[in-house]
Amino acid sequence: MTNNVEIRTAARGDVQAIAAMFAQDTLGGHGDSADPADLPAYLAAFDAIADSPNDSLFVAVRNGEVVGTFQTTLITSLTGKGSTSLTIEAVHTRSDMRGHGIGQAMVNHAIDEGRASGVRLVQLTSNATRRDAHRFYERLGFSQSHLGFKMKLR
Predict the structure, then answer these.
(1) Mutual orientation of helices 102-117 and 131-139 as an angle, nearest 10°?
(2) pTM of the entire structure?
(3) CA torsion, points 143, 59, 131, 23, in degrees to nearest 10?
(4) Average pLDDT over residues 74-95
(5) Reading across the β-sheet that carries 6-9, which strands appear in turn?
(6) What pLDDT is recorded for position 28?
(7) Average pLDDT over residues 76-83
(8) Of the CATH numbers 3.30.70.20, 2.60.120.560, 3.40.630.30, 3.40.50.20, which one belongs to the domain with range 6-139?
Protein backbone atom coordinates (compact mmCIF):
# COMPACT_ATOMS: atom_id res chain seq x y z
CA MET A 1 0.00 0.00 0.00
CA THR A 2 1.41 3.38 -1.08
CA ASN A 3 0.02 6.81 -0.06
CA ASN A 4 -2.83 5.00 1.71
CA VAL A 5 -3.70 3.44 -1.65
CA GLU A 6 -4.13 -0.29 -2.14
CA ILE A 7 -3.68 -1.60 -5.68
CA ARG A 8 -5.51 -4.89 -6.19
CA THR A 9 -7.04 -7.00 -8.92
CA ALA A 10 -10.48 -5.66 -9.75
CA ALA A 11 -13.52 -7.65 -8.69
CA ARG A 12 -16.85 -7.84 -10.47
CA GLY A 13 -18.30 -5.67 -7.71
CA ASP A 14 -15.92 -2.85 -8.70
CA VAL A 15 -17.26 -2.54 -12.25
CA GLN A 16 -19.98 0.01 -11.51
CA ALA A 17 -17.47 2.36 -9.81
CA ILE A 18 -15.03 1.92 -12.71
CA ALA A 19 -17.72 2.72 -15.28
CA ALA A 20 -18.73 5.81 -13.29
CA MET A 21 -15.13 7.07 -13.40
CA PHE A 22 -14.96 6.55 -17.15
CA ALA A 23 -18.32 8.30 -17.60
CA GLN A 24 -16.89 11.45 -15.94
CA ASP A 25 -14.11 11.63 -18.55
CA THR A 26 -14.79 14.50 -20.94
CA LEU A 27 -11.59 14.12 -22.98
CA GLY A 28 -11.58 10.42 -23.78
CA GLY A 29 -14.57 10.38 -26.09
CA HIS A 30 -15.32 6.72 -25.42
CA GLY A 31 -19.05 7.22 -24.82
CA ASP A 32 -18.93 5.67 -21.36
CA SER A 33 -21.95 5.84 -19.12
CA ALA A 34 -22.93 5.39 -15.49
CA ASP A 35 -26.46 4.43 -16.58
CA PRO A 36 -27.42 1.15 -14.85
CA ALA A 37 -28.88 -0.05 -18.18
CA ASP A 38 -25.31 -0.10 -19.57
CA LEU A 39 -23.89 -2.16 -16.70
CA PRO A 40 -24.36 -5.54 -18.47
CA ALA A 41 -21.99 -4.42 -21.27
CA TYR A 42 -19.34 -3.46 -18.70
CA LEU A 43 -19.82 -6.75 -16.84
CA ALA A 44 -19.43 -8.73 -20.07
CA ALA A 45 -16.18 -6.87 -20.77
CA PHE A 46 -15.03 -7.52 -17.19
CA ASP A 47 -15.72 -11.24 -17.61
CA ALA A 48 -13.74 -11.34 -20.88
CA ILE A 49 -10.78 -9.59 -19.23
CA ALA A 50 -10.97 -11.86 -16.18
CA ASP A 51 -11.02 -14.95 -18.42
CA SER A 52 -7.99 -13.83 -20.45
CA PRO A 53 -4.59 -15.18 -19.38
CA ASN A 54 -2.90 -12.07 -20.83
CA ASP A 55 -5.14 -9.32 -19.44
CA SER A 56 -5.48 -7.97 -15.92
CA LEU A 57 -7.75 -5.25 -14.55
CA PHE A 58 -6.74 -3.43 -11.39
CA VAL A 59 -8.27 -0.88 -9.06
CA ALA A 60 -6.75 1.59 -6.66
CA VAL A 61 -8.66 1.70 -3.38
CA ARG A 62 -8.44 4.39 -0.73
CA ASN A 63 -10.55 4.36 2.42
CA GLY A 64 -12.62 1.52 0.98
CA GLU A 65 -13.50 3.39 -2.23
CA VAL A 66 -12.36 2.70 -5.78
CA VAL A 67 -10.41 5.83 -6.76
CA GLY A 68 -8.52 4.59 -9.80
CA THR A 69 -8.19 1.83 -12.35
CA PHE A 70 -5.93 0.52 -15.09
CA GLN A 71 -5.60 -2.54 -17.26
CA THR A 72 -2.51 -4.42 -18.39
CA THR A 73 -2.05 -6.70 -21.37
CA LEU A 74 0.89 -8.98 -22.12
CA ILE A 75 1.75 -9.16 -25.81
CA THR A 76 4.27 -11.66 -27.11
CA SER A 77 5.71 -10.87 -30.53
CA LEU A 78 8.29 -12.34 -32.84
CA THR A 79 10.10 -8.99 -32.75
CA GLY A 80 12.78 -8.62 -30.13
CA LYS A 81 13.62 -12.31 -30.51
CA GLY A 82 10.19 -13.37 -29.34
CA SER A 83 9.95 -10.96 -26.44
CA THR A 84 6.92 -9.98 -24.40
CA SER A 85 5.75 -6.42 -23.81
CA LEU A 86 3.31 -5.08 -21.25
CA THR A 87 0.76 -2.53 -22.39
CA ILE A 88 -0.87 -0.31 -19.78
CA GLU A 89 -4.35 0.77 -20.83
CA ALA A 90 -7.22 2.85 -19.47
CA VAL A 91 -5.30 4.50 -16.62
CA HIS A 92 -7.85 6.61 -14.83
CA THR A 93 -7.93 8.35 -11.45
CA ARG A 94 -11.22 9.63 -10.07
CA SER A 95 -11.32 13.36 -10.81
CA ASP A 96 -11.55 14.43 -7.15
CA MET A 97 -8.52 12.30 -6.26
CA ARG A 98 -6.02 13.53 -8.84
CA GLY A 99 -2.75 14.94 -7.51
CA HIS A 100 -2.62 12.50 -4.56
CA GLY A 101 -0.10 10.02 -5.98
CA ILE A 102 -2.73 7.48 -7.04
CA GLY A 103 -1.79 7.52 -10.73
CA GLN A 104 1.87 7.09 -9.89
CA ALA A 105 1.08 4.18 -7.57
CA MET A 106 -0.96 2.50 -10.33
CA VAL A 107 1.68 2.94 -13.04
CA ASN A 108 4.46 1.82 -10.70
CA HIS A 109 2.42 -1.27 -9.87
CA ALA A 110 2.03 -2.05 -13.57
CA ILE A 111 5.77 -1.60 -14.14
CA ASP A 112 6.52 -3.91 -11.21
CA GLU A 113 4.14 -6.50 -12.67
CA GLY A 114 6.01 -6.23 -15.96
CA ARG A 115 9.37 -6.72 -14.28
CA ALA A 116 8.03 -9.75 -12.41
CA SER A 117 6.80 -11.20 -15.71
CA GLY A 118 10.16 -10.60 -17.40
CA VAL A 119 8.84 -8.28 -20.10
CA ARG A 120 11.20 -6.42 -22.42
CA LEU A 121 9.16 -3.24 -22.65
CA VAL A 122 6.32 -1.38 -20.93
CA GLN A 123 4.25 0.80 -23.21
CA LEU A 124 1.10 2.88 -23.11
CA THR A 125 -0.83 5.33 -25.22
CA SER A 126 -2.46 8.57 -24.18
CA ASN A 127 -5.02 10.71 -25.95
CA ALA A 128 -3.21 13.48 -27.84
CA THR A 129 -5.24 16.13 -25.98
CA ARG A 130 -4.11 14.99 -22.52
CA ARG A 131 -1.06 17.22 -22.13
CA ASP A 132 -1.03 16.90 -18.31
CA ALA A 133 -1.01 13.11 -18.64
CA HIS A 134 1.88 13.29 -21.11
CA ARG A 135 3.96 15.29 -18.63
CA PHE A 136 2.99 12.82 -15.90
CA TYR A 137 4.15 9.81 -17.93
CA GLU A 138 7.39 11.56 -18.88
CA ARG A 139 8.07 12.26 -15.18
CA LEU A 140 7.70 8.53 -14.57
CA GLY A 141 10.35 7.74 -17.19
CA PHE A 142 8.29 7.10 -20.32
CA SER A 143 9.30 8.74 -23.59
CA GLN A 144 7.33 9.44 -26.73
CA SER A 145 8.85 7.13 -29.30
CA HIS A 146 6.09 6.19 -31.74
CA LEU A 147 3.09 7.67 -33.47
CA GLY A 148 -0.19 5.88 -32.89
CA PHE A 149 -2.96 5.32 -35.40
CA LYS A 150 -6.53 4.20 -34.81
CA MET A 151 -9.46 3.26 -36.98
CA LYS A 152 -12.95 3.21 -35.48
CA LEU A 153 -15.02 0.34 -36.77
CA ARG A 154 -18.19 1.17 -34.85
Answers:
(1) 50
(2) 0.89
(3) 150
(4) 93
(5) 6-9, 55-62, 65-76, 84-93, 121-124
(6) 62
(7) 93
(8) 3.40.630.30
